[in-house]
Write a structure and sequence with these properties.
Blueprint lengths: L1 H23 L38 H12 L9 E6 L5 E5 L12 H11 L7 E6 L5 E5 L21 H11 L8 E5 L46 H12 L6 E4 L8 E6 L3 H10 L3 H14 L6 H14 L23 H13 L7 H5 L24 E8 L2 E9 L5 E8 L6 H16 L5
Parallel strand pairs: 4-5, 5-6
Antiparallel strand pairs: 1-2, 1-10, 3-4, 3-7, 8-9, 9-10
Helix pairs in contact: 2-11, 3-6, 3-7, 3-8, 4-5, 6-7, 7-8
Length: 453
């Protein structure tokens, strides 16, 4: 047996040396080597840019020429009386056009730019929102404790919010933490983190629930939608979240009620939202009102303010002031821009975009990645034209739409490669939605195609 083992070892060693000789070329003349063709990469054509690029030496537009180009558009009857606009060169900070830019105007959803900057400058980029389930006060009772994450999903993955946590994750943890065989007979939903009214001053009676908003609560699923992926929002987001947890626990017959968690209750499950930067992107790109209100309340909590509409508005304004933003003329009743009582000057909107783009507002750069790209995604996916000069990526902007109010604020790359920040607000629009949006799109396209010198 010893001799046999020795023979096997010698054979293995000899084989390895023989292979080494083949790969190294040692021990042979090379006549037995196998020829291999030299690897060649395929020929590739010139890459076509997907997003507009900047030029290091691009000239800035002449303010007088640019104003002359935009004046007829800003005077279009569809915009109504008093439309305001502000355009600023990002690199130099030069104001290229100002038409009533300091006047307070109803911003509609462009108000979300304020919420975004407040969240990005108050919270950390990696911050998340926690949702927990704790033990109830009696056997068979669990309590879903909302932390304000409206992205919690009934499906895996979420049909609306990529990266969102799921109710199934909570249920799995709960079942593992509870004694085996313990049936869940009652689900309590604790939304006490948020305080005050469920709708904001200036919201209409048909706004919540609707296809774009719902009562604002600390506990919700799928953005307070009545079902995953739908447009319709619910009038009882907390109850819906509790029912979703009951279903995931296999306890569809369980009672679902609103209430509060017992003091010192044992934690059974915990999930975290996507990071703050992702939430801000989703809020801006899809103009998500519920996510905007939730983020404002996170800013309020971080600043020791009540997690309410008033507290959120105060916290957002305070955060902007600390970030160096002049908030003169700013009045907020909510964080989403749905309230008709909100007032924000066009110059403030353009200034926020410029501050995020040039870095003068520290930490606000995440705002830019959330701006919809004209002709490509978000609320601008179907707005733009086929002109190569205004191709996707040239215009990136936040939209705003209410009855009689239309706005657009963001960045544009000129034909020469110069980056501008702009805002146009028509809060007394006289034309139809289609007509007004066409004028705003023409303004953006004119900026994009403008050498203006």
């Amino acid at each position: 047996m010893t001799m046999l083992a020795l023979l096997v070892v010698l054979l293995l060693v000899g084989g390895v040396m023989s292979l080494a000789g083949v790969f190294s070329g040692a021990g042979n003349s090379g006549s037995d080597a196998v020829a291999v063709d030299e690897a060649r990469l395929p020929e590739l054509g010139d890459a076509t840019p997907v997003l507009a690029s900047l030029s290091e030496d691009a000239p800035a537009p002449d303010p007088a020429v640019l104003t002359a180009e935009l004046a007829p558009l800003l005077a279009a009857p569809a915009l109504g009386a008093g439309a305001s606009a502000h355009v600023v060169d990002v690199a130099e900070g030069t104001v290229l056009l100002d038409r009533g830019g300091a006047a307070p105007a109803t911003p509609a959803s462009t108000a979300k730019l304020l919420t975004a900057v407040a969240a990005l400058t108050t919270l950390e980029p990696s911050d998340t929102i926690e949702t927990t389930v704790v033990a109830g006060s009696v056997p068979g009772e669990v309590v879903l404790v909302g932390g304000g994450d409206v992205t919690l999903s009934r499906t895996a993955p979420s049909q609306t919010y990529p990266g969102a946590p799921t109710v199934a994750e909570l249920a799995t943890q709960v079942m593992a933490a509870m004694p085996a065989g313990t049936p869940v007979t009652r689900v309590v939903v604790d939304s006490s983190l948020f305080t005050g009214e469920l709708t904001a001053p200036g919201w209409g009676p048909a706004d919540a629930p609707s296809s774009y908003a719902a009562p604002v609560t600390a506990t919700a699923v799928d953005g307070a939608r009545v079902s995953p992926g739908s447009q319709a929002r619910s009038g009882q987001p907390g109850i819906d979240a509790g029912a979703a947890l009951a279903d995931a626990l296999g306890a569809r017959g369980a009672t679902v009620v609103l209430g509060t968690a017992p003091d010192g209750a044992e934690t059974l499950a915990t999930v975290q939202s996507a990071p703050l930067t992702r939430l801000v992107e989703q809020m801006l790109s899809q103009s998500d009102n519920m996510l905007a209100e939730a983020l404002a309340r996170q800013v309020a909590l971080a600043r020791d303010r009540p997690a309410s509409f008033d507290g959120g508005a105060e916290a957002v304004t305070e955060a902007l002031t600390e970030a160096g933003v002049d908030v003169s003329g700013v009045t907020l009743a909510d964080a989403s821009g749905l309230s008709l009582q909100d007032k924000v000057p066009a110059a403030v909107l353009a200034g926020l975009v410029r501050g995020a783009a040039d870095g003068s507002i520290d930490g606000a750069a995440g705002l830019l990645s959330g701006l919809p790209v004209a002709g490509y995604d978000g609320t601008l996916f179907d707005r733009g034209d086929d002109d190569p000069g205004t191709a996707p990526g040239t215009v990136r902007a936040k939209t705003g739409t209410l009855l009689g109010v239309h706005a657009l604020a963001g960045t544009v790359v000129t034909a020469d490669g110069r980056l501008l920040a702009f805002a146009v607000v028509a809060d007394a629009a006289a034309g139809s939605e289609v007509a007004v949006e066409a004028v705003l799109d023409d303004v953006a396209a004119t900026l994009a195609g403008c050498g203006c010198r």
